[in-house]
Amino acid sequence: MRIQCSCGAVQVEISGAAILQYVCHCDDCQSVHGKAYCCSLYPAQNVGVSSGETAVFTLKTSPRTRCKQCGTFLFAEVPGQPVRGVNGDLLPHGLFEPQFHIQCRYATAPVQDHLPHYRDLPARFGGSDEVIE
């Protein structure tokens, strides 16, 4: 699958299926994106820039790759993990189906859907597994 930035200058190739998909409400994601981040997680080796110039930006924790021309964020590295979180907003319609929300303690507006809303992280990712309304 191929995705691109808003201006079309950068092309990203993605192979295989997503490991999981979620929406992150952490203050880092909200500061960078101006909203919660729709994350589609893939093994790092399955996501690569095939054309165009990119820049990497880190606010607090996650290095994020963006188009050097228009600034569209393409994917983020997950510190200490061999995965890349692709911007779910760039996936073809219908391919982003999140399984849960994380870091909801930072949500700036009520999150209203049928998915689990974790205060921090699910236990399988080292979190408390606490779910909030």
What labels would you give this structure?
single chain, 133 residues, mainly beta, Metal Binding Protein, Guanine Nucleotide Exchange Factor, Chain A, seven-stranded mixed β-sheet, three-stranded antiparallel β-sheet, 5% helix, 34% strand, globular
Q: How would you explain this protein's 3D organization?
A:
This protein is 5% helix and 34% strand. A hairpin with a 5-residue loop joins strand 7 and strand 8. With 133 residues, it is mainly beta. The protein has one helix and ten strands, in the order βββαβββββββ. The chain has a single domain, classed as Metal Binding Protein, Guanine Nucleotide Exchange Factor, Chain A (Beta Complex).
Give the secondary structure arrangement, pairings included:
Layout lengths: L1 E3 L6 E4 L5 E5 L2 H7 L3 E7 L3 E5 L2 E4 L6 E4 L5 E5 L5 E5 L12 E3 L31
Parallel strand pairs: 3-10
Antiparallel strand pairs: 1-2, 2-5, 3-4, 4-9, 6-7, 7-8, 8-9
> In percent, how much strand structure appears in the residues?
25-35%
Number of strands: 10
Mean of the pLDDT scores? 95
Predict the CATH topology. Metal Binding Protein, Guanine Nucleotide Exchange Factor, Chain A
Strand arrangement across the biggest beta sheet: 6-7-8-9-4-3-10
- What coarse outline follows from CA principal-axis ratios? globular
Overall radius of gyration: 14 Å
Total number of helices: 1
Count of folded domains: 1
How would a textbook summarize the main sheet? 7 strands, mixed
Low-confidence stretches: none
What is the N-to-C succession of helices and strands?
A: EEEHEEEEEEE
Helix content: under 10%
CATH top level assignment: Mainly Beta
